[in-house]
Amino acid sequence: MHPLDNVIWQALTTRQAEFAETFEQARRFPREITSLTAFPEPSPQGYASLAGLLGTGGTATLSLPTPYEPLPGWELIVTFPGLQMVCETGANVTDSHPDSAPPIIVLGPGDAHEMVELATLTKPGPFGPRTHELGLYLGIRNEGKVIAMAGERLKVPGYTEVSAVCTHPEHTGKGYARILMLEVMRAIRERGEIPFLHVRQANTRAVELYERLGFRTRTVVQFTVLKKL
Q1: What's the predicted TM-score (pTM) here?
Q2: Domains, the chain, ranges and CATH?
């Protein structure tokens, strides 16, 4: 199996196993970190384990290899195709930080509330008050407020995911996402790892940005949020 196949499961069983909450075949991150959840395969045993892990009323964000087929006992909240993109080369990662750009800051526990607010507004994906614990998070402030950020999420052998790329709607079009992504990618490369990311297939504007930075689509996954009835 390639490290990026069933990547949430791979992360929770390798480099990020210390975060895993486990029940039989299912694993998840703590709710305060992210809703990402996984099992080895979408089999009856996998869903039974998922039910035990979540409990009644619990929700999970899964990355499935094929479209979700309705199952008794589960409510489908949302599902959509997402691209898994990989930057195999170092192209564009060595670009310098423009002198005119705002300073980049490292975000941490003291910024968690603002990070959640920005993610709630812009919806880059599941984000919680402890998501910053997964890796490096960088941001840009304007008038004291975090207006853009990007960071690291899933980590598997040889690869680290670039995630939570978002900019406040009042500050888009200034290149902040690109600047922050390049710095996060640089940090990943310096560790000898390869950057990858996930994006909604329908988000053509983001896909075009990522392609300009050297990312190429590796596969299509089905992001699916389920609730246990």
Answers
A1: 0.94
A2: 7-81+224-228 (3.40.630.30), 85-219 (3.40.630.30)
